[in-house]
Amino acid sequence: MRSLSIAATGMLAQQLNVEVISNNIANMNTTAYKRQRAEFQDLLYQNQRRVGSQAADNNAIVPAGVQLGLGVKAAAVYRITEQGNLTTTGNQLDVAMQGKGYFQVTLPDNTIAYTRAGSFQLDQQGNIVTADGLRITGTNAIPNNATSITVNQSGQVFVSQPGQTQLAAAGQFILANFVNEAGLQPIGNNNFIQTQASGNPVTGTAGNQGFGTILQGFLESSNVNTVQEITSLISAQRAYEMNSKVIQASDEMLQNMNQIH
Amino acid sequence: MENPSLIVLSRQSALRSQMDVISNNLANMNTRGFRGEQLLFNEYVNAKAGNPGVRGDGAKISFVGLGGTLTDTREGALEPTGNQLDFAIKGPGFFAVDGPNGPRYTRDGRFTIDGQGQIVNRDGAAVLDPRGRPLTVPPGAASIEVTAGGQVSSDKGQIGTLQIVKFANEVALQKVGTNQYQTDAPPQPVDGTTSVNQGMIEGSNIEPIVELTKMIQVQRAYEAASQMISNEHDRGLKAIDVLTRSS
Asked: Given this model, what pLDDT does residue B65 score?
């Protein structure tokens, strides 16, 4: 019975679905996390009677053949890059991106990674770094006597120092944009690296064409909608059960056959 | 004498195929752009075996045979994703993507771009324009827009038009898996009622409850059929018993 193995592929697919949903729920409070969803494709079809073949009795063309599908497989787990809500923190080194764009950070091996999680801090040299101590491209070291840091909408960083009325410039965030954001590869710690699918980064500054603006004192929260995830979880669970019912029904049909005597 | 059992057997093997179709529908209830199927049965009329000379209505018996799979062409619900390379077709129509033996057609519009900047589907096959050429995103482009008519443009200029076609008989399309169809039938241009929606994807059109109900029906029918085989077997035994009993 094909239906046994077909239903098994359905159960495997729903299992993956539940795994992805649970990862979304686990990351619902992760800064700038983008929710993911599992995507499926139908498997091959067996042609018992091919479309367009001739019926033997009257030579008529068969308008619709008998095509039996063999189940489902996982095609991709992909990210939905909608903007997350902005939440106010009041912290002067928390910056949120409203619109498109990624901050560029330098990984320990000197490659560039991209992130939207703007919960930055200062390291011992006064550099603006991520929570993991990775430096942000475009910003200069903040003098250690600075009394406050201001970031404007285009990502320019200014510091005020005691005894000076003018703000001193301390660089500007250089942002990157991708034609296919969903093609970026997540490497954990809220960072992404470019792939062939994402395309090459287009760099620029906030507020320019194609780039979002930067808001100081805000963080982008995850775009996980918990109600939606719980609903998807319930529907995935029911789908799993339905596929197991198919297995049960197929099994009973087989059992029934064995009982004929 | 075996005819009743043989007829019931044809019924049982048809029901097993129907179970396969239902389980495939249920397995694909979350597959993008998937369209459910149902199985049609044919009646095969035969002269009654073993009674060659007999004429009249009673001399014919009929078996069940597989007629065809009928694809349910209703649209699945559109769901927003916010991804600028997700396109959904509203109304009749299919995207054309490159395939090994000519173009393949799909309603699954979750596209991405490859290393050469071509718009491709999840398996890396190029999405085609009306002249059968791939669509290439210019290097450095940061945003892509698509109009309802399928014209794709980026912030670095026009990219081209998506080939969107429909078929006179959608049911005759051959499924090749991975949400794609293939056909020899000539494609036709779509009219203004078909539109492309960016940032949306089309879900599967399966109604799980309906499928589950059908599954229960199939299972019960199968049981009834095997009950009939059982009864038929008992009848045969009884006939042998009665006819051979010595008085």
From this structure: 85
